[in-house]
Amino acid sequence: MTDTARKRPSGRAPDENRIVSIETGFARHAEGSALIRVGGTEVLCTATVEERVPAFLRNRGQGWITAEYGMLPRATHNRGQREAAKGKQSGRTQEIQRLIARSLRACVDLKKMGERTITLDCDVLNADGGTRCASITGAWVALAIALKKIKRSQALTAQVAAVSCGLTEAGAVLDLDYLEDSSAKADTNFVLTADGGIIEIQGTAEDKPFQESEFFELLRLAKLGTTRLFDAQNHVLETA
User: Which residues form a coiled coil (predicted)?
Assistant: First the structure.
């Protein structure tokens, strides 16, 4: 394949992340907050602590982490109707917020939280691909800040970040933007931990089945990409 054929729309190298920035304290009333920017995608992640747990956890001496996800009407090219106006959430919204919650519960010792609930709200301000991955990466920062504020930092057991990878006309690439995501031959999302653990992998072939060797190349790219995201998370927490 020629260099021209392999060129990505953004001009990035196949193993290059989009520019990432994380700003903490954006939501001044929340126990923890992080505004994460990944290329053209921007997500506001907030962590709210409540001194109660769902009914099924009462008197069990442990906490709970849940998540809600949503997109502002003009986060995309065309205005989307607010789901509150529709009276129900889409299947996509429910699937993403469950993914965020699962990912963050996997990095916390719920018993060390005590009987309290932390709700992670992830609101997409601008979408340019990878909103669920940016939400997980930013929500981890908001969660870490909230746990520190309530003096439960010891409950945090792992560092978590997420990134998308895919098979495109440029081959296997890291951190898909919208143009790549909308035309990818295969699209995958990796939720990984800083110590080499895997929390979740979502992968779909859009054209034809992809091969094991291609999957392991996507995994290699994801490990590289999340390493950079872990660095960004650590930097913002050290300087917050």
Answer: none
